[in-house]
Design brief:
mainly alpha, 9 helices, 67% helix, globular
Length: 179
């Protein structure tokens, strides 16, 4: 456990490597990125930025939060049909990410936390921060929001709108609610 009184610094090099990886994966596998591979890449970057804002004064490792946020939707680059990716993309986050995690020069503890976070194995504070950031990013990114609404309507999945809206009732942190 990290020292509660000591603010951990973000590993910018590792986070930049993961940002490059996310860009490459969405560019190579744009099938679940609406009209262009940049949609989900930009969403992942926005989730990272919001998550880092939410966790500013929290006793968490910002490197773990940033990398977990960047990789939270990377499973959507996995080769699978759209329904599987829609319902189970989180199951593919770790298998897609394994090739980059060992190359980051992070501690074993950081890698373990990132693996747990992107696998949604528990309800850690890092996962809660990323879930809040993800909910906020969906509406903050107008392009993604509009593409998603059109996708929902085309696929007659109107219940998905209620499910997404309900995430605002589940925001966990005051910082998130203020955003």
């Amino acid at each position: 456990m990290e020292d509660q009184g000591k603010k951990l610094e973000i590993n910018e090099v590792a986070v930049a490597k993961v940002a490059d990886f996310v860009t490459e994966e969405f560019e190579k596998h744009p099938h679940y990125s609406f009209d262009h591979w940049t949609v989900m890449r930009d969403h992942s970057f926005m989730v990272r930025d919001l998550a880092l804002e939410i966790c500013k004064d929290m006793p968490v490792d910002p490197t773990v939060v940033a990398i977990g946020a960047l990789l939270h939707d990377i499973g959507k680059t996995h080769e699978a049909d759209p329904e599987t990716l829609h319902k189970h993309h989180e199951d593919f986050n770790l298998p897609v990410s394994e090739k980059i995690l060992e190359k980051l020069g992070l501690s074993d503890e950081q890698v373990r936390k990132i693996r747990d976070t992107i696998s949604y194995k528990d309800d850690s504070i890092e996962i809660q921060i990323i879930k809040d950031a993800d909910a906020l990013a969906m509406y903050k990114d107008e392009r993604l929001h509009n593409l998603w609404i059109n996708w929902v309507r085309e696929n007659k999945l109107d219940s998905e709108i209620e499910r997404k809206l309900s995430k605002f009732n589940k925001l966990r942190f005051e910082q998130s609610k203020e955003m």
